[in-house]
Write a structure and sequence with these properties.
CATH superfamily: Uracil-DNA glycosylase-like domain
Oligomer: single chain
Number of strands: 6
CATH architecture: 3-Layer(aba) Sandwich
CATH class: Alpha Beta
Strand order of the largest sheet: 1-3-2-4-6-5
Structural class: alpha/beta
Strand content: 5-15%
Radius of gyration: 17 Å
């Protein structure tokens, strides 16, 4: 069997059809579209993770948006959540530009990699437990391939919990008491720092639950953690 790689993982993610409910939904949305994107060809497949293969910062979100990642084929691309996220990443020095509109817009990530709990857009943004479990092996493979990661940001409670669970299942971290989710909470566990953030969804940004300054502080905290990180024993 060939050695695993991010390219191989990407192909496996895009070809996945393990969750019938999500397959039906993502493909139906891609056919029906919405009026403002009626002239576009939707991606309509799972979204692979993307970013810098040498990343020290890993972001774990929930799932692609129906008319964002499910349309464009790239996580947090083409919707308001992405506008918030990439603006904050750009200001913290992790992204080459502050906007993400398409897979071909020239955006690159610097020292950062973005992935998600689930790779398919779910109805009403709600995932079933079985769907989360089905997608977990993809995240496991990413974590093992991204050998330089030292800081992990969980976007939303599910993204934060998924990150903790995955690193624990791989035997990379141990904790007696599970770290609690709270915006801006930061935990050093073994060689990793985990940071929790509200998800930049419109539900949070339109209501003021998450502000630009709050999100910016999360990535300043991530940058500070990386700058102060020292390999144990060095």
């Amino acid at each position: 069997m060939a050695a695993d790689s991010l390219a191989r993982l990407r192909r496996d993610v895009v070809a996945c059809r393990k969750c019938p409910r999500l397959v039906r939904w993502r493909e139906d949305i891609a056919r029906r579209k919405v009026r403002r994107f009626a002239g576009e060809t939707y991606w309509g497949k799972p979204n692979p993770g993307f970013g810098d293969p040498e990343a020290k910062l890993l972001l774990v979100g929930l799932a692609p948006a129906a008319h964002g990642g499910n349309r464009t084929g790239r996580m947090f691309t083409g919707d308001e959540s992405g506008n918030w996220l990439f603006r904050a990443l750009y200001e913290a020095g992790f992204a080459s530009q502050a906007e993400s509109t398409s897979r071909n817009d020239g955006l690159t990530l610097k020292g950062c990699y973005i992935t998600a709990t689930c790779r398919c857009a779910p109805p009403q943004n709600k995932l079933l437990p079985a769907e989360i479990r089905n997608c977990r092996p993809f995240l496991h493979r990413e974590i093992l391939l991204l050998k330089n990661v030292r800081v992990v940001v969980g976007l939303g409670r599910i993204g934060f919990d998924t990150a903790l669970t995955s690193f624990s299942e791989l035997g990379l971290i141990e904790y007696k008491k599970r770290p609690a989710f709270g915006h801006g909470a930061r935990y050093r566990i073994g060689p990793y720092t985990f940071i929790a953030s509200f998800h930049p969804s419109q539900q949070n940004t339109f209501t003021g639950r998450l502000t630009r300054s709050m999100l910016n502080r999360v990535f300043r905290s991530a940058r500070e953690s990386l700058e102060h990180f020292r390999t144990p024993g060095v």
